[in-house]
Amino acid sequence: MKTVTESRRQTCIVAGVSGCLGIIMLIISFNINPVPPAGANVNQLIAFGVRYHNSILWGAWLQAVAPVFITLFAFALVHLSGAAGRLSGWMVFFALVVLMAVSLIEITFYIAVMFISPPQGVLTSLNTIYAVQHLYFIVAAPSVFITLGIMLLNSYVLSKVFAYTAIALGLAFAALGILFLTTLILPLWVTACGGIQAIWWLAASISLIKRSSKIAVD
């Protein structure tokens, strides 16, 4: 039978690998899923969808599945921190559910935009994607990183640097959500800022793997 120490170490490694895999999938999806031309009409969007059909759908698949692996990593942080029964842990769980919901809604309309009948559905789906992207900055990213950061402040699982940077990221995302609330289509540089979170997840995942032996015996 596995000892508690062995079990905790394996949990750290599995969770860390899961986080790394999720981020790698996200990075690939961002690189293969092209952005439609600004101001394109229905016919141009349909032609764009036909041209990049497979890239868009595979990118959508990657963006739908990747958050599952990231969520597993975050759940493991709650578990390893012993916060599953505390308010801080429950708030992280709630935030991750919100993140998954926002992600899946956006991906649903990535797929919906590929349907060319009726043609106006393409524009409706694209506008819904633009609207949902606001939710990432308004509530999804801020709630995940702020709650994770607060929880990690009272945990030895990761360095306190991750706690402070998570809170800073959450506040930065929230600020962008407020500043661009009245801009219906977020500027490309703003949506690109969402990719910054990948650095945090990847660094935290690698750190958890490296610290697995120490965490296991603490």
Helices, strands, pairings?
Layout: H1 4-32, H2 42-51, H3 53-80, H4 87-112, H5 120-153, H6 160-179, H7 188-193, H8 196-210, H9 212-217
Helix pairs in contact: 1-3, 1-8, 3-4, 4-5, 5-6
Q: Your description of this structure?
A:
The structure is a single chain. With 218 residues, the chain is mainly alpha-helical. It has one domain. The protein contains nine helices and no strands. The chain has helices at residues 4-32, 42-51, 53-80, 87-112, 120-153, 160-179, 188-193, 196-210, 212-217. The two termini are 20 Å apart.
Précis, in short:
This protein is mainly alpha-helical and 218 residues long. The protein contains 9 helices and no strands.
